Each structure stands twice: as C-alpha cells, then as structure tokens.
C-alpha cells in the first residue's frame, strides 16, 4: 500500500534551488514535502563553488534576478547559522590590456544602470585590493555586491529552516495526473506523495522530470572542473577573475572554455574554478581542463605557481540554451511548476527563484517580472533534444 501524505506542494530536488523554494513556500504558509533520489546537495549543488555574483551578468532579466538574490542572501545570512559561511567579500574583475579594460567599462556602465555598484580600479591601485596580483594588468573593476556561501551547507540550512518533510533516497518515477490532466502528486519507489502542486527543482535532470510530465524542457549538462589548493594564508581576498570569464559564461559553445575565477576560503585552500564544456554526463578527468585552469590562475596570481593542488572535482551545470532558468507554472500541465536550468549561477539565484516560485504558488504579487523565465518559452535555436540529455 502506498503511503499517502498531502502537503500543499511537493518539490523534486534537494539542491540549493529546491531548498530555497521550500524555504519561501513554507514562509508563505504552505506545507511542503521535498523528495530527492540522493542526499541533500548530492547533485550539482555539492559540486558548485558558492559564488554569488552580479559582476559577470549583463543588464537584463538574469541580472535583475541576481540583484534580488543578493539582497535576499544578505537577509538570510542574518537568520541562517554561521556554517552557511556567507561572506560579502566582493569581486574584482581585471583587464590584461587597454581594449579589455575599455570593454569592461562599457559592460559596467550597463550594469550600473540596472543597480549594480561597479567601481573602476586603476592599474596602480589594484595591489591595494589584491597585493599578490600579477604586475602589468591594465586595471579592473571592483564589485562590492559579489559574495560567497558554502553551497551544500546553504541548501541543508534552508531545508532545515523550511520545516519541510524530507524524503531522501527516493527517486521520482512518475508525475501523477488527474482526469483533467492536472498534477495530483508524484510516485517514488516507496510511496505516492499527493499534492495539488509539484515543483521540478531537479537541476540538470529537470528535462527528465519534465518528460515524466509529458512536456519538453531542454536542460543540458555543462561540465565544470574546479581545482582546490593546499591550505594557504589569506593571499586572495576577493573573487578575482579576468575579463574574458564574462564571455565564457555567456557563450553557448560546446567546446572547452576556461577562465579562472580565484578565491580564498576561510579554511585556507584557494578555489580555482571553473571550466565549461558540453560533453554530456562524461565523468572522466580532463587533464587539459585542469592544466588550463592552473596556468590561468598562476598568471593572475604568480604566487600560486608553486602551490600544491590537493584535489579537483567536477559537476554538471543545468544549462538551458538561452542561459535563463525556467521558473514558474507550466501552462501545459496545470499544477506543474519548474525551478531549474540555472546553469552556473544556481547558488546565487536560488533565493530569488524561491521567492518567485512561492509567489506563483500562492498568487501573490511577484517582486519582479517573471515573464522572461516562463518554462514554455522558445529556448532558442539550440532547443533540440540531443544525446547530451541522456544521464
Ligand atoms: C564546477 C561548478 C562550479 C559552480 N560554481 C557556482 C558558483 O560559484 N555560483 C553559483 O551560483 N553556481 C555555481 N555553479 C552552478 C550551481 O552549482 C548550480 O546552478 C546549482 O547547484 C543548481 O542547483 P539545483 O538545486 O537546481 O540542482 P541540483 O543541486 O543538481 O539539485 C537537483 C536535485 O534533483 C535530484 N533529482 C534529480 N532527478 C530526480 C528524480 N527523478 N527524483 C528525485 N530527485 C531527483 C538530484 O538528486 C539533485 O539532488 C557551479 C556548478 C559547477 C558544476
């Protein structure tokens, strides 16, 4: 006999996005169940770096979502326990030469109009912010709104604070539909969880959950590697990256792209991330990716050239071809909502996603226009099912 529970909403996925959806849905007065086939943060969240960046986003809907999230993460940091490791350390984007600096200036100008604080740092003042930076850079921009959390802890703490019923180690194998086609819950290996609303927060596997509900959502994996050094004294104070990282993030190319983002951590290791490539769910080690990251990090911080790398890890970003997440109700299946496809920014964008989702579930006024994130939108020319969608 299946166990039957009736929360107001079932959320599929205990990553940071599912956790934020659970948190804000519960705060809106809804009863919530979260189901995951693995542990909390066992998907891409456990493989992320925890950058909360506005600096890498051009003016537009994703930046609006990031700015809202920045405020929400700050509020959350006052209520979540210190293990969340919220650190408003700020970002520093550096330009190797004058043309790159000129491009950064234009980029920052657009961001400022959208509400971002971006301050130009002349070449001779870069060392004030980062004493170990390589000499000879043309200048940079300081972004004080960039911050950091520990992603797995953040997901776990948000879930605990939500009070949601957790069903871990249970794979969702079916989306249950009623006679009118509306969602009435999910089936797992162990039970049926009945609810009038189901949220697809399955990250990189969001396309498969959509398929279970009979709709198409072209989420693809975009692999990323991260290097972790031996513990060091705090030699890197901000999130530091070169201007070409911004182009890598915005690119839709399947080929290997790498531009190191370097940052110190409270524990001492320096994190160097991250590459981007679309190779399906290929888990093999790419020495080329690691070599490139290490070389780029050492170009930014020459002192890193002699440091030991302790380990490398990888994960699969949930990529939608137009680089915007899918957030909100799916008009093709009443009661089905999506909160997935955040690519390389899901940790940063999680709280705003949760707030938008909670507003959609309760009929409250959303804090920003949700239209650009409509799940059923045309996702662009690359919106065709491919082998990459196979797990
Ligand atoms: C190397 C790397 C570095 C990154 N760095 C950053 C960063 O600095 N800042 C940032 O904002 N983002 C970063 N990201 C991206 C970020 O990690 C993701 O956008 C984010 O973690 C997505 O969270 P999620 O909750 O949507 O997905 P996930 O964390 O993957 O959670 C989805 C969950 O759904 C579960 N699931 C799937 N299918 C089923 C099913 N059928 N039944 C039950 N459960 C199911 C999975 O087990 C999983 O736990 C990085 C990613 C990578 C790979």
UniProtKB/TrEMBL annotation:
Record keyword Lipoprotein present: no
Keywords noted in UniProt: Oxidoreductase
Oxidoreductase among keywords: yes
FAD dependent oxidoreductase domain: residues covered: 8-359
Region feature (Disordered): 366-391
Record-linked PROSITE patterns: PROKAR_LIPOPROTEIN (PS51257)
UniProt superkingdom: Bacteria
PANTHER family: FAD-DEPENDENT OXIDOREDUCTASE DOMAIN-CONTAINING PROTEIN 1 (PTHR13847:SF287), SARCOSINE DEHYDROGENASE-RELATED (PTHR13847)
Name by which UniProt lists this protein: Oxidoreductase
């Amino acid at each position: 006999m299946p166990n039957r529970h009736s929360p107001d909403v079932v959320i599929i996925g205990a990553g940071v996005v599912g956790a934020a959806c659970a948190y804000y849905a519960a705060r809106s007065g809804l009863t919530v169940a979260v189901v995951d086939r693995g542990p909390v943060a066992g998907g891409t969240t456990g493989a992320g770096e925890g950058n909360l960046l506005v600096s890498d986003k051009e003016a537009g809907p994703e930046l609006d979502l990031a700015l809202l999230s920045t405020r929400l993460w700050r509020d959350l940091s006052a209520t979540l326990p210190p293990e969340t490791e919220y650190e408003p350390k700020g970002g520093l984007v550096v330009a190797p030469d004058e043309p790159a600096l000129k491009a950064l200036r234009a980029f920052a100008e657009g961001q400022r109009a959208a509400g971002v604080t971006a301050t130009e740092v002349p070449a001779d003042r870069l060392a004030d912010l980062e004493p170990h930076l390589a000499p000879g850079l043309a200048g940079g921009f300081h972004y004080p709104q960039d911050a950091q959390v520990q992603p797995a802890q953040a997901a776990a703490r948000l879930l605990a604070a939500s009070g949601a019923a957790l069903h871990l180690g249970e794979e969702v194998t079916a989306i249950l539909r009623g006679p009118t086609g509306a969602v009435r819950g999910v089936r797992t290996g162990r039970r049926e969880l009945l609810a009038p609303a189901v949220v697809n927060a399955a990250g990189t596997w969001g396309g498969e959950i959509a398929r279970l509900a009979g709709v198409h959502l072209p989420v693809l994996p975009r692999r990323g590697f991260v290097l972790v050094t031996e513990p060091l004294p705090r030699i890197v104070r901000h999130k530091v990256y070169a201007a070409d990282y911004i182009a890598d993030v915005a690119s839709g190319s399947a080929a290997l792209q790498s531009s190191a983002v370097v940052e110190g951590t409270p524990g001492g290791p320096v994190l160097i991330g991250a590459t981007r490539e679309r190779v399906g769910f290929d888990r093999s080690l790419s020495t080329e990716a690691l070599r490139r990251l290490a070389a780029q990090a050492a170009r930014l911080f020459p002192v890193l050239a002699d440091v030991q790398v302790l380990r490398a890890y990888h994960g699969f970003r949930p990529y939608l071809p137009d680089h915007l997440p899918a957030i909100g109700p799916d008009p093709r299946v009443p009661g089905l909502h999506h909160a997935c496809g955040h690519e390389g920014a899901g940790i940063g964008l999680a709280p705003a996603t949760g707030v938008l989702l909670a507003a959609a579930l309760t009929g409250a006024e959303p804090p920003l226009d949700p239209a650009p994130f409509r799940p059923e939108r045309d996702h662009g020319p690359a919106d065709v099912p491919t082998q990459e969608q196979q797990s």
